Amino acid sequence: MPPAAPSPILRRRRLGIELRRLREAAGLTGDQVIERIGWASASKLSRLENGRSRPDPQDVGDLLDLYGADQALHDELLGITNEAGDMRGWLKNFPVMTQQQRGWAELEAGCAEISEYNPVLVPGLLQTPGYAQLRIVSARQVNAGAGEPEPGDEPDTEVQARLARQSLLTREPHAPRYTAVLEEAALGRRAGPPEVLHEQLLQLCELALLPNVALHVLPRDTPIGNWYLPPTAFSVYRFADPLDPETLAIEGGFTDVMSTDSITLNRYKVVFEWLCTAALDASDTLSWLIEATGRLTEAAPPSTVAFGPATAPTQRRRESGRLTDR
Q1: Could you read off the pLDDT of 76-113 as tens digits, one per residue?
Q2: Cα distance between residue 52 and residue 235, in whole Å
Q3: Is 51 left (phi over 0), alpha (psi -120 to 50) or beta?
Q4: Closest Cα to residue 203, out of 111, 213, 158?
Q5: pLDDT higher for 272 or 168?
Q6: Pair type for strands 247-251 and 213-218
Q7: I need a surface site. Which of 133, 201, 208, 267 has the fewest CB within 10 A?
Q8: Cβ–Cβ contacts within 10 Å for residue 302, how many?
Q9: Calpha distance 109→94 (Å, rounded)
Q10: Which residues contact 216 (CB under 8 A, 6 or more apart)?
């Protein structure tokens, strides 16, 4: 299977960066460009450069001519322009996709590497259907309490859309390198009933065995860096094409923020390195997950226990003593 094509949204961002670079190299202001090309809307160029509008090939061609782009660059950027406009073709890869999940799928498409941290939840790419259903339904109850209208998509549709994204991790032979730091609290019993948590822990054990996946559990009392406390969940996306802009997604409770600003990205990269250093390594994380699943099985045995002899819960502990029964 070939690598997943970058999404139209990513192509728009890449095109915008290139158009801005060419304009600045030509020594032109936005007003000068608008005047010379004769566009009626002063915001048209701004929307193109910021990747906020579907680009028209004729408009892009006019800009490239004005900026004096050579033929090779002209052809390359017009190709990107066509990809940026082909939303329908790209969505054929996702027969079930809601608006919310589409935003995340657009970021993940074409990724070479994804780094994620979440202080309270299992990230969407790792969630089981039962865990995802709980998260979606509980969030909708908050919205209902705030008097907001019910979303058009049914919870089951939202779950299926979330699961559609997960094929990214097992795509052969071009699955991205995926690293996640999971807070111990995100895997605790406040997250759901025992049968849901048992299924989720089993899935994390299976995913941790994938060659492209590295999971790191962060024990609840482990300090990060110089007692740093990450205030929000975040993800960093690096793409197969090195010219596509590396992207940061910051998750708030009900609002997400995207950024390609290099200074902001570098800050979060530092934080992620601190998180990985503080967390259990991949091998000890797998042991932790197996033990946690075993403890949950003993406390409330599910109807089906998937562990065989090769993955039976172990009593292994880290020498530091940070990993204990709870």
Answers
A1: 999 989 888 766 666 666 656 666 677 777 778 778 89
A2: 21
A3: left
A4: 213
A5: 272
A6: unpaired
A7: 267
A8: 16
A9: 11
A10: 179, 180, 181, 182, 275, 276, 279, 280, 281, 282, 285
pTM above 0.70, yes or no: yes
| Paired tokens of 118 | 């979440």
| Residue at token pair 């802009």 | 245
Contact (CB, 8 A) for 36 and 66: yes
Q: What are phi and psi of 218, to 5 degrees?
A: -105, 105
For tokens 């979606």, name the residue: 136
Say whether 35 sits in a helix, a strand or coil. Answer: helix
| Encoded tokens for 8 | 């139209």
Amino acid at 9: I
Residue 70: which residues within 8 A CB-CB, separation 6 or more? none
**Residue 113 is which amino acid?**
E
Residue pair 8/86 in contact (Cβ under 8 Å)? The answer is yes
The pLDDT tens digits of the residues spanning 147-194 come to 665 565 677 877 887 888 888 898 877 889 999 999 998 888 888 899
